[in-house]
Amino acid sequence: MGHGGNVIVEFTADHRELEELFAQIEAQPVDHPRRRELADRLTAELVRHSVAEEMYLYPTVRKHVPQGGALADKELADHAKVEQMLKDLEDLPADDPQFNDIVAKLKFEVASHVREEEHELFPRLAESLSSDKLDELGRLVRRATEMAPTRPHPSLPNTPPANKLLAPGVGLVDRVRDLLSSRTATG
Fold this sequence. Notes:
By secondary structure, this protein is mainly α. It is built from 6 helices and no strands.
């Protein structure tokens, strides 16, 4: 499953990529420096994914899905927990005992989030929107992902309009920091 489809296909492809990154981290020896590199990639992908969901998915769910407000609020609360974990993980070396603990907790939280979205939210979204609207959201999400931050910023707003105004600028700053620090955010 690849990118380039409607919003559900797009986010489902992200979910598989996140699962693969967790598997790659777990495949490394416990204190291997490669775990840190993979954790940086995981962080960048999770932050971009979350920003795109916050910019386009949850406002759409809130507006078009029955009881969507409660669904969106729960997902935003989950995002806040994950983002704080990513911030806690950000500067830990792979040989720090907390590193493995945070990665394990993060994997659990992300897996729970993925299950909820794929089994509850996505089917309800598909019932509530036309295929054209789902395709349009997919395009918006791809664009948002390209401009999104690559590092955790728990204090940034996670709802429109502020997130749509601030995320692209913060994303640019993050990409410059990534370049200057030789941190690989993708690939």
